[in-house]
Amino acid sequence: MEMLTFFALVNTSVAFLSVMFYILVFTITSDPRYLFSVQIHGLAGYLAAVSVAVKQIMPDHILLSLPCGKIRNRNVPLIVLMLSILLWPLGVVRSTYPVMFASGLLTAWIYLRFYQHHSNGTVGDMAEGFTFASFFPNVLQPPLIVLSNVIFGFFVYVKLCKKPLRKYNIASSTSVTLTIPGSESNDAERRRQIALRALSERLNKVEQVSWPATRGEGKSSDKSKSTEIAMPLLDHHQSSSSASESLVSQSEHSVDVERISRDNQSAII
């Protein structure tokens, strides 16, 4: 039911915002083609909404590793929006695609940020990792944070948005727990995903380190075995050579004895 509500809300809002955008362009340019020739159709807005929902659930999941950096889920909405704007003058995509994508991105973020009801009774997602400035690079975030805070303060003033409530749980005199409604379950899911990814990276590093070590241990054991085998062979060779030398010395001694006995006999004769 929640997905059907999200689908209907996003597509209806995308159609309304796109029509209002082209009426504004017609008011500025007075070109009737923007009223009668532009056809608004397709699921570009819903694709943008899905990318925002994925960013909310798994913002730091790596999709592609490049030499210049890593593309994560949190970078997908802005990258697709910029590509659609760049491809529109080339005729690759229709002029309505960037408008519908931007409308779907904004609508989905507003709904998920402030109005979605969760099963635990909270409303919205006020986590720091799901701010409007988090869609942009870190360099552009400080001025966008100031601008978005001003706009949010205005919406709170005109009663379009509610200021997030903070609950303080003073368990003891030394610890204070701060709870922001709408951020507990989503933050817990994000922390679980980050912990699982860090654990898998550590396991991969341990496997890469232990594999060469086992190969080195195998080589050292083989070398020790070869030395152990070579030492008995060397001892056996030394013992055989000493035995042969003793036999030769004994044969020479017997020859000398026979020669002396023959000389004595000849002397007697």
TrEMBL record:
Keywords: Membrane, Transmembrane, Transmembrane helix. One of its GO terms (cellular component) is Golgi apparatus. Its main location: membrane. It is found in: Membrane. Residues 210-269 are annotated as: Disordered. InterPro entries: TMEM115/Pdh1/Rbl19. The chain crosses the membrane at residues 7-28, 34-54, 75-93, 139-158. GO terms for biological process: retrograde vesicle-mediated transport, Golgi to endoplasmic reticulum. Residues 239-252 have a biased composition (Low complexity). The keyword Membrane applies. Residues 216-226, 253-262 have a biased composition (Basic and acidic residues). It is a multi-pass membrane protein. This is Transmembrane protein 115. It comes from Oedothorax gibbosus.
